[in-house]
Amino acid sequence: MASTEKVFFTYNDIHNTIKKLSEQIQESGYEPDLIVAIGTGGFIPARIIKTYIKKPILTVGLKLYDENNQPKDTPEKIQWIDEVEKKLKNKKILLVDEVDDSRTTLEYCLKELLRAEPAEIAVAVLHDKEKEKRGSIPAEIKRYFYGAKLPDKWICYPWDAIDIDKHGV
Ligand code: G4P
Ligand code: MG
Question: Fewer beta carbons within 10 angstroms: which end of the chain, N or C?
């Protein structure tokens, strides 16, 4: 059960964390051919990463929580990459999401993308929650980058704010 405590981040917080994350990726020597964003949470982080790592972005849409905010057993594919093999085969991919929470979505997405036989997939998440994970990162994945590790609290992202002026500065 996730904690009901909340932590708030502003757009500037997010941008600064992604700058740090991008620098770590560059310093590691990993040079992706493509960025793949897991939407919707990964869309804005991926676009900010592209400011530092100038590669094309492809997107996949996955949804774990239903309309009543209950997690499902398996993520639902909202959208996938057309001609996925043609686009990903032998390519180096940077897979981007906002949060590594239970790892259910990440594991599912990585396994699906690996079927397209990319050269390598590296994972980049803005936030990794320190908690027991339900999913696992497949053994083929050798690089995992995170912007910050956080305790298991509910993260309030600025893009979810109904009133951004009340979200904090
Ligand atoms: P993981 O594999 O990356 O760990 O993710 P997991 O399956 O555990 O859960 C993914 C869903 O849970 C995503 O939403 C993600 O946004 C949401 N989530 C998990 N923890 C938090 C949090 O602390 N704050 C917020 N705002 N969201 C969180 P989704 O319903 O799958 O899709 P979408 O919202 O990205 O469209
Ligand atoms: Mg969400």
Answer: N
Mutate to test the pocket of ligand 1, among 64, 108, 123, 141 (most ligand atoms within 8 A of CB): 64
Look at the block and give the residue holding tokens 């259910």: 104
Residue 157 · residue 14 · CB < 8 Å: yes
Q: Is residue 1 part of a domain?
A: no
The count of structural domains within the chain is 1
Per the listing, tokens 């995170």 go with 146
pTM: 0.95
Residue 84 has pLDDT above 60, yes or no: yes
In this predicted model, what pLDDT tens digit does every residue of 13-58 receive, in sequence order? Answer: 999 999 999 999 999 999 999 999 999 999 999 999 999 999 999 9
Which residues, listed in sequence order, are joined to residue 92 by a DSSP beta bridge? 120
CATH code, domain carrying 55: 3.40.50.2020
Between these two residues, 73 and 54, which has the higher pLDDT value? 54
Peptide bond into 74 cis (omega under 30): no
Q: Which domain holds residue 116?
A: 6-166
User: Annotated catalytic, 82?
Assistant: no
Please check whether residue 124 lies inside any domain of the structure: yes
